[in-house]
């Protein structure tokens, strides 16, 4: 290998490392912006004592997080071996 080839590999390696560092930093910023508190103390806008809707609220436009999907999923569908 001559000197020019070594420099090309070195330059490509530095570019790949710089790309990975920038992608990691952007991912951390996006994750910090998107992840908020799981539970808020703000009122939900529903009168107290009212039952929640049976299904997820699809009209709000926000995506539901897994902890907001109460009563959905495969839990509680049938008893397990030890529950009988």
The helical percent reads 25-40%
Largest sheet entry = none
What portion of residues belong to β-strands?
A: under 5%
Low-pLDDT regions? none
Mean pLDDT: 74
Give Rg in angstroms: 25 Å
Query: Topology as H/E string?
Result: H
Could you give a short description of this structure?
The chain is built from one helix and no strands. It is an all-alpha fold and 84 residues long.
Notes on the structure:
The N and C termini lie far apart (72 Å). This protein is elongated. The relative contact order is 0.05. It is an all-alpha fold. 38% of the residues lie in helices and 0% in strands. It is built from 1 helix and no strands.
Secondary structure blueprint with pairings:
Layout: H1 3-34
Main attributes?
mainly alpha; elongated; 84 residues; 1 helix; single chain
